[in-house]
Amino acid sequence: MASGWDARPPWRPGRLPLLLCLLLLVQLLRSPARAAHIKKAEATTTTTTSAGAEEDEGQFDRYYHEEELGSALREAAAAGPPGLARLFSIGSSVEGRPLWVLRLTAGLGPPPPDGDLGPDAAGPLLPGRPQVKLVGNMHGDETVSRQVLVYLARELAAGYRRGDPRLVRLLNTTDVYVLPSLNPDGFERAREGDCGLGDSGPPGASGRDNSRGRDLNRSFPDQFSTGEPPSLDDVPEVRALIEWIRRNKFVLSGNLHGGSVVASYPFDDSPEHKATGVYSKTSDDEVFRYLAKAYASNHPIMKTGAPHCPGDEEETFKDGITNGAHWYDVEGM
Ligand SMILES: *[C@@H]1O[C@H](CO)[C@@H](O)[C@H](O)[C@H]1NC(C)=O
Ligand SMILES: *[C@@H]1O[C@H](CO)[C@@H](O)[C@H](O)[C@H]1NC(C)=O
């Protein structure tokens, strides 16, 4: 499932300022007094949702840089009971930063004694337990997902420990993998407040791309292409993800972006690669629509289908969802 938010392609005018929309959203969640946008969407006011969140307030007010991401994930794991989580890295970015994944599911047993943090540290697959993955920050400057995936991991682990019935059921039956940052190099290059630089600034400066100037979200082989698949030499992040996907059996995936506020479901392109307006169905279209709607209908702004993002005020999405290719065609997914 390709669901989440999406930064629109840089060639469309007024796209990257959409990032503001998400930044705004984060601001609003933090300060109900400024929640004009949310009020308009008739959302309920945000309240503290998890036990312990109040005393943790300080942890939610800044981005985790460099090694802090690894330690934040270690802390998230430690919030759960023993045997619930495994931290490992699926490979490295161009500049050598680890691509961390936190695996969460009940009954994992103790981690390997040698302290290995490579892909094998994930531990064995559990028969009959569906694997689900969430990937964030593949555009280095679309940063909100990187944070919220850490919060989500922590909440899943802490919720299991305190016996939250939904979360216990979830992690008893589902094998969840959280990869908060696929582009840690771009993230470190991005500057808070630089929203939109990618449109006009020097190439790569915004942090959207990896350190070799490659957009990771445009660097996967394309299912409708008949030629040679693209070389992955400049995108070790993509290669690591593909290898990891091949070693596993994920049945559902979410990919979180910054930018417009919509749940976009597969496919993202069609054989004819028309720029926009072609509904490109998977054979599971109904399932994807259902899941996209479930996501969007629980999001105070997304569910309105009219996010009023700066630069794209008029853009609307029925029920807050869209087929990716119908929105705009992107090859190499
Ligand atoms: C690229 O981003 C889109 C959202 O625009 C997402 O649907 C898709 O899954 C992403 N592709 C990959 C390979 O992650
Ligand atoms: C979750 O799994 C544990 C360990 O097998 C079991 O004791 C518990 O009853 C399960 N809870 C739910 C809600 O499935």
From TrEMBL:
GO CC terms in record: extracellular space
Domain of life: Eukaryota
Signal peptide annotation: 1-35
Alphabetized GO MF terms: metallocarboxypeptidase activity; zinc ion binding
A Pfam family this chain is assigned to: Peptidase_M14
Swiss-Prot/TrEMBL keywords: Carboxypeptidase, Hydrolase, Metal-binding, Metalloprotease, Protease, Signal, Zinc
Gene3D superfamilies: Zn peptidases
Family, per entry: Belongs to the peptidase M14 family.
Protein name: Peptidase M14 domain-containing protein
Organism of origin: Cervus elaphus hippelaphus
Lineage per the UniProt record: Eukaryota, Metazoa, Chordata, Craniata, Vertebrata
